[in-house]
């Protein structure tokens, strides 16, 4: 007889949420975690600490540059970086404790150690002291997440050449920060250190920032970041870093090859993506198939090639996003319980938590063009939104893409303050298969920034009021 109905390996947002949902459905559940704290990358060295620093650094920036025009006189704010890092740590601790509480509340056992799958129903857990035990379970869910992607020949020391982990814990503000990769991590952490005083240069392989996001949004956002002081080197790659001197000397050359240029920086942040984490999991020996990119292969029901073993989150295909992992965790637990768990991959919002924020749900204009879908565009700038005007935060716009024949909303893209909150009315609308007309006829409170979303929906039918 198996001890548990379900053992989940990994306690990031995918794993712990899956465990909670399974416990709600009456299963006897254990989670296996190799790190000293629960919560995975997101809570410990990812989403949550970066959001704490983004918030704190934004307040610093506002106090330095925006208070005076509102008639608030303060002496020049002074940065106390250790205190800011302490603020970050308090946020991490609070959330980690929250997950511990949820485990206790749902009677989920926490097994500390590194999990290795021995085959269907068996997980070996090796604790920090090297002692191993075998845990038996009717079902296993792999939720081991992802690790940083590395650049060949460039060693990450987390002091001068850092990944996102080191960039969240620098002990002083670098006077210059060179970032490799104009993706989400590069732009968020670049924003943090830029606001605190670093000169930021971003080297990006492609000829655009934020690949995957709507092109028009990315272009406008790049202009906004440049206005803030970011420098971009697009279509370029870093090929090496000389660490011998006091400052780092990075060799940067055109993506297509050519003469290298030397860029000096105090700190280099490598943010070129993440890779699935399956190290030591025993997939090969257990017969769990991986795909050509090292991700655990699953079917439409999260089932791996071994019966009773499932996988969710960053370790499987799809966007590496905490909320995608959470929803997969819920659906997977429901499927194991015999229910019809399901994730709608067409409606997964994406947010870049900079100032202004960038958010997106559904198809981009490029994707619709490529698929040959006839669409109508409705756009509304925040410069024409009353609330944004009075707050003097008018950067950005809302763009809605709707099916030309049926008016069904296919994609919504926003650059602007609070874009990460605004996007969810579009997500709900799209989940219900709603049209631009539905959104346009929904009463929106005045004065709110959300009215810009309604106006963009009106603009799909060429009848925006304030433009
Ligand atoms: P990313 O995939 O978002 O961006 C990586 C960037 O690096 C791309 O623009 C890519 O073209 C570029 N690149 C790749 N190799 C390069 C090279 N050799 N030289 C120059 N540029 C190169 O990856 P990122 O920012 O590291 O984030 C990792 C994962 O974490 C992503 O999947 C992201 O979605 C997720 N994440 C999500 C956040 C959010 O939702 N707000 C926040 C932080 C991370």
Structure description:
The longest helix has 25 residues, at 81-105. The strands form 5 sheets. Strands 1, 2, 3, 4, 5, 6 and 17 form a 7-stranded mixed beta sheet that branches. A 5-stranded parallel beta sheet has the order 8-15-9-10-11. The protein has a 5-stranded antiparallel beta sheet with strand order 18-19-22-21-20, sandwiched between helices. The model has no long low-confidence stretch (mean pLDDT 98). The protein is globular, with a radius of gyration of 24 Å. The termini are far apart. The protein contains 14 helices and 22 strands. Strand 13 and strand 14 (261-265) form a beta hairpin. By secondary structure, the protein is of the alpha/beta class. Helices cover 33% and strands 25% of the residues. The chain folds into 3 domains: 3-148 and 275-336, 3-Layer(bba) Sandwich (FAD/NAD(P)-binding domain), CATH 3.50.50; 161-272, FAD/NAD(P)-binding domain (3-Layer(bba) Sandwich), CATH 3.50.50; 350-460, FAD/NAD-linked reductase, C-terminal dimerisation domain (Enolase-like, domain 1, 2-Layer Sandwich), CATH 3.30.390. 1,4-dihydronicotinamide adenine dinucleotide (NAI) binds next to helix 6, strand 10, strand 12 and strand 18.
What structural keywords apply?
about 475 residues, alpha/beta, FAD/NAD(P)-binding domain, Enolase-like, domain 1, 3 domains, 7-stranded mixed β-sheet, 5-stranded parallel β-sheet, 14 helices, globular, binds 1,4-dihydronicotinamide adenine dinucleotide
Roughly what is the average pLDDT, rounded to an integer? 98
Tally of DSSP helical segments: 14
For the record, the count of structural domains works out to 3
Ligand identities: 1,4-dihydronicotinamide adenine dinucleotide
CATH architecture heading of the largest domain: 3-Layer(bba) Sandwich
Uncertain runs are: none
Structural class: alpha/beta
Shape designation: globular
Outline the biggest β-sheet: 7 strands, mixed
